Amino acid sequence: MRDHYIPYMSWKDVEGKLQAGVDTAILPMGATEQHGLHGPLGTDSIIALEMSVRIARLINALVAPTLTVGYSPQHMTFPGSMTLSIDTFRRVVSEMVESLTQHGFKKFAFVNAHGGNRTVTDVTARDLKHKHGESIQLMVVNMLRIQTSDEVKEEVEKELGQKLSDPWGAHAGEQESSAVMFFKPELLNFDRMSEPMIPGEYLALSRDPDVNTIVFNLPRYTETGTWGDSRNASAEQGDVFYRVLSEKLADKIQTHWES
Predict the structure, then answer these.
(1) What's residue 16's pLDDT?
(2) Helices (H), the chain
(3) What is the pLDDT of residues 182-233, one digit of tens each?
(4) What is the rounded CA–CA span in Å between residue 248 and residue 51?
(5) Which of 143, 61, 54, 53 has the alpha carbon at shortest distance from 106?
(6) H-helix or E-strand containing 141?
(7) Mean pLDDT of the chain
(8) Are 217 and 201 in contact (CB under 8 A)?
(9) Is 217 helix (H, G, I), strand (E, B) or coil?
(10) How far apart (Å, rounded) are the C-alpha atoms in residues 233 and 251?
(11) C-beta separation of 118 from 74 below 8 A
(12) Is 128 exposed, middle or buried (0-12, 13-18, 19+ CB in 10 A)?
């Protein structure tokens, strides 16, 4: 991480990378919000950072500071959860990008690991592109759809030689818990690993791509704030998850820049 994550580098390190031709910055977008009884509130930020650094190694990029507080009003009934307003989110991200453009970065990939950030991230990227025009390129990488896809699940299952829970990519479920376990296992409370639970009504209301109901009273549908089954989470599974998904995302990023 030392060679790719800007907060861990000196200005001389960054200057050297720019002089060597690096012009791409990845912005990890996470959140500080509840992840059940067992998971840290920074789960999405942990995943965003680890995934971004792995992608950076594959595409020769640097990684900007993680946005550790995102847009999370649906989780605010759980203590410790935090949210930015839409206006604040847009301003912070815009000023991060504009800071980096001053040093010569020209390509920006927003790697978003929190579903609640999706709309505001897209609007922010469009505003920045409208303002700066052809001087920069901007890309929004929303991880949620691909990280919860059958394709990724099947590849991880094949490599591990075991079946994964369903839904595997659920909030604070097996996938996210494994990702945290690989990064720093002491952040998980193993005595509180979640029992199987799927808030069907909440998902039906809030995840329909055609008719999407805005739901902020999450405890009405899940008392613990989680869904899925995290009991079979493992650090090995987390490592495979990061590798499989970072390779797929790196390939997509490389082929989606304008020529």
Answers:
(1) 97
(2) 11-19, 43-59, 86-101, 118-132, 143-147, 150-160, 174-183, 200-206, 235-256
(3) 999 999 998 888 777 888 888 888 878 899 888 888 888 888 888 889 999 9
(4) 11
(5) 61
(6) strand 137-142
(7) 94
(8) no
(9) coil
(10) 27
(11) no
(12) buried
CA-to-CA distance for 101 and 27, rounded, in angstroms?
13
Q: Which two tokens stand for residue 115?
A: 């579903």
Radius of gyration for the alpha carbons in the chain, expressed in angstroms and rounded: 18
For residue 127, give both structure tokens.
Answer: 């505003």
> Following DSSP, what letter does each residue of 143-185 receive, concatenated?
HHHHHTSHHHHHHHHHHHTSPPPSSTT-TTSHHHHHHHHHH-G
pTM, whole model, 2 decimals? 0.95
| 3-class SS of residue 97 | helix
Dist CA 137 CA 253 (whole Å): 12
Contact 143/115 with Cβ under 8 angstroms?
Answer: no
CA proximity to 58, closest of 255, 223, 247: 247
pLDDT at 209 (0 to 100): 81
Sign of the four-CA dihedral 211, 213, 219, 224: positive
Tokens, residue 220: 């009405």
